[in-house]
Amino acid sequence: MEKYATMIKENLNAGKVLCGIAVSLSDSAVSELVGLSGYDFVWIEGEHGALDRKDIQQHMIAAHAGGAASLVRLGNSDPALVRAIMDMGTDIIGFPFINTVQDAQKAVSVCTYPPKGIRGCNPQRASYYGRMNYLDYIKNADKETLKMMLIEQKSGYDNLEDIVQVDGVDIIALGPGDLSLDLGFAGDMDRPEIKNMITHAAEICKKYKMPFIVFPTIEKTSVETWVNIGANMLCFAQDTTFITSAINQLWSFYDEVVPVEKHH
Question: Is the link from the previous residue into 96 a cis peptide, with omega within 30 of 0?
């Protein structure tokens, strides 16, 4: 929706560092809470977890109700799925496993109306259910939704400098978990090779003034590290992680305070 996408673009252009949280639980109240807490965007996890299309749209609505932009990470780049998510009115749409210039061009094309692209025409919620002037929506739609390319394999990383120059690409994100798997590191995201790749990717994005998302842990030092390398979008992952962390911390309090003989 143009209000929230414009908010994201204006803040990035002003040099702000934006912050979001990834959600994967089906209850959309989580997204509303993220927005009400002051975060800039909600990363709606459409690849991992159990969210279906209805859940995704409810999370978009809730994010906007809380004052945050919606970012949908797609499970795949199937045009039928992309068109549906676009018509729901996402502010940012994230394409997985972008490895080549051609991958990026195809992703942008599916989000773009003819003659420049292949998006189908029936915007639904994206045009406020028809309350927005139809011709005005069509005229401005191509530039209102930000297109994010997820670099999750070494081939994509190797082609990053070309990918960031593709017309219509608005944001780059590196997936450290998938990169570590692709490189044979068995999911170890703390390897120096992975951190060096993220740092180099940030340098490329800075060179081309391309917004770059990173995924800090829930520690202050992690936030400092990635902000200092030049990331201008931070995404904390994810709602289930935060709940688990709080549960474990509370259990540790119980374990420390309550004598062992009084444990259940």
Answer: no
> Which alpha helices (DSSP H) does the chain contain, by range?
2-13, 29-36, 53-65, 79-88, 101-110, 134-144, 154-158, 160-163, 176-182, 192-207, 220-228, 239-257
Is residue 167 helix, strand or coil? coil
Domains in the chain, CATH or no CATH each: 2-239 (3.20.20.60)
Query: Cα dihedral sign for 137, 138, 143, 146?
Result: positive
User: Would the CA dihedral through 101, 213, 70, 28 be positive or negative?
Assistant: positive
Reference 64, options 26, 101, 91, 25; nearest CA is 91
CB 113 within 8 A of CB 138: yes
Please give the average per-residue pLDDT across 93-112, as a whole number.
98
Condensed to tens digits (0 to 9), the pLDDT of residues 213-232 reads: 999 988 899 999 999 999 99
* pLDDT in the model for residue 251: 96
pLDDT digit string (tens) for 48-69?
999 999 999 999 999 999 999 9
Enter the pTM of the model.
0.95
